[in-house]
Specification:
The chain has 8 helices and 12 strands. The two termini are 38 Å apart.
């Protein structure tokens, strides 16, 4: 019997999917790294692109199972244009939009144009993990194994039980301290300013909070981790600039300018 030729743009059958492909369309480096780290809680193959043009090419050749797109993309193109590409190639991939804008009109407009789900930045990692797993299960019929614990240097971050372990010892952290650690870990090796950390932890409320609040949270986090600020293992102070996380988790992701990159 002659085998049926797969439709152009259609993803492989669920039985053939070992690691669902996720395309991250984000131009802001820290947000791209945060999404990338969060997706480490599942078995995914990932690519990062920074413009609508790069995403358009990748969508038609790489055929992802899920697309995560920043509506605040630093690009002249329209991120929602990607929905039209999805319809044109007959692909089934869901789109999860990310936005820093809490305006309900923006969110409604995104859903009206076909976005499958939407998260406001900053988001709790478990929210993105759950929505990505659900979106792929719903549209592709693929169950992605959930990985609860990530090992980052000497630290283990358990997303399910919401705890952190350092050198085999469980460390009790507050919700804010866990969020701070996760953002720092996502940007491992990057220097992050106090204002940047405020934005990724408190979102729109950051404008109401003084930047030295971050210093207090970093100090408390260091104390719980047993980290010496003068000889840091985890969090380094960069004079006049902010903080840098030292516990690397592999090589930091780099944007893919093209599918072949």
């Amino acid at each position: 019997m002659e085998q049926e030729t797969p439709q152009k743009g259609a993803p492989p059958s669920p039985a053939a999917v070992a690691r669902p492909r996720c395309l991250i369309v984000v131009s802001e480096p820290l947000l791209a790294r945060l999404v990338h780290l969060t997706l480490d809680h599942g078995h995914y193959e990932r690519r990062i692109v920074t413009t609508v043009a790069q995403a358009r090419t990748t969508l038609e050749t790489w055929q992802p199972h899920l697309v995560l797109v920043d509506l605040n993309l630093d690009d002249s193109g329209d991120p929602i244009e990607l929905i039209g590409i999805r319809r044109r190639v007959g692909a089934l991939f869901p789109i999860i939009a990310l936005t820093r804008n809490a305006d309900m009109r923006i969110k409604l407009a995104a859903f009206e144009r076909g976005v499958d789900d939407l998260l406001t930045v900053p988001f709790a990692p478990e929210e993105l993990v759950a929505r990505a797993l659900a979106a792929i299960q719903r549209t592709q019929g693929v169950t992605v194994p959930f990985i609860s614990t990530l090992k980052i240097g000497e630290l283990e971050i358990d997303l399910l039980d919401q705890n952190v372990t350092a050198n085999g010892k469980q460390i009790p952290l507050t919700r804010t301290q866990r969020a701070l650690l996760y953002v720092l870990a996502a940007g491992s090796g990057m220097v992050m300013s106090r204002d940047q950390l405020l934005e990724y932890i408190f979102g729109n409320d950051a404008v109401l909070i003084e930047s030295n609040v971050i210093d207090r949270h970093v100090r408390d986090l260091r104390s719980k981790l047993g980290d010496d600020p003068y000889h840091p293992r985890y969090i380094e102070t960069v004079a006049g600039a902010g903080y840098r996380f030292l516990g690397a988790r592999g090589a930091p992701p780099r944007p893919n300018p093209s599918p072949e990159a």
